[in-house]
């Protein structure tokens, strides 16, 4: 079994979060998989939705078991109405702004979320490396 020391986990996280990333909500009923690309996801539209820019300076990387990167600002969407398409939100995905590569994705535990006037999604992005 290969063991990666915490210091290398920190290096990997630092490398991963060097570029600006785009945090997007997805509207297709998809369970994220290792074979996904950014094209696997249908981005939410309408209802006051806009992607969120994640800046490298806002990531706080903490060594440990596991090491993790925590964004120091809430990711938050306040909807002004129903979204386009099916109107559903299933989760989020993150792409690298420079390479356009999918970095990670997560399906929300309770889906679908159906935005209405003043509905809100709010969380702090966290990425673990173990």
Low-confidence stretches: none
Q: Fraction of residues in helices?
A: under 10%
Element order: H for helix, E for strand: HEEEEEEEEE
- What is the makeup of the main sheet? 4 strands, antiparallel
Strand arrangement in the largest pleated sheet: 2-1-6-7
Tell me how many strands there are.
9
What is the typical, i.e. mean, pLDDT?
A: 93
Q: Estimate the global geometry from the Cα principal axes.
A: elongated
The value of Rg in angstroms is 16 Å
Number of domains: 1
Count of helical stretches: 1
What is the strand content? 25-35%
Give the class from helix and strand content and strand pairing: mainly beta
Termini separation comes to 14 Å
Give the topology.
Layout lengths: L5 H11 L4 E6 L25 E3 L4 E4 L4 E5 L3 E4 L12 E6 L5 E6 L12 E4 L2 E4 L1
Antiparallel strand pairs: 1-2, 1-6, 3-4, 4-9, 5-8, 6-7
Give a structural overview.
By secondary structure, the chain is mostly beta strands. It is 8% helix and 32% strand. It is built from one helix and nine strands. The longest helix is centred in the N-terminal third of the chain and has 11 residues, at 6-16. The protein is elongated. The relative contact order is 0.28. The mean pLDDT is 93.
Structural descriptors:
130 residues; mainly beta; 4-stranded antiparallel β-sheet; 3-stranded antiparallel β-sheet
In short:
With 130 residues, the protein is mostly beta strands. The chain has one domain (6-129).
């Amino acid at each position: 079994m290969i063991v990666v020391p915490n210091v290398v986990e920190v290096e990997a996280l630092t490398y991963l979060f060097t570029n600006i990333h785009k945090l997007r909500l997805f509207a297709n009923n998809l369970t994220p998989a290792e074979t996904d690309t950014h094209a696997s996801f249908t981005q939410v539209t309408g209802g006051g939705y806009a992607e969120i820019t994640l800046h490298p300076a806002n990531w706080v990387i903490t060594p440990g078991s596991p090491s993790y990167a925590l964004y120091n600002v809430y990711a938050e969407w306040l909807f002004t109405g129903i979204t386009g398409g099916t109107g559903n939100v299933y989760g989020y995905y993150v792409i690298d702004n420079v390479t356009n590569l999918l970095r990670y994705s997560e399906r929300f535990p309770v889906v679908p979320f159906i935005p209405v006037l003043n509905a809100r999604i709010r969380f702090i992005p966290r990425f673990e490396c173990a």
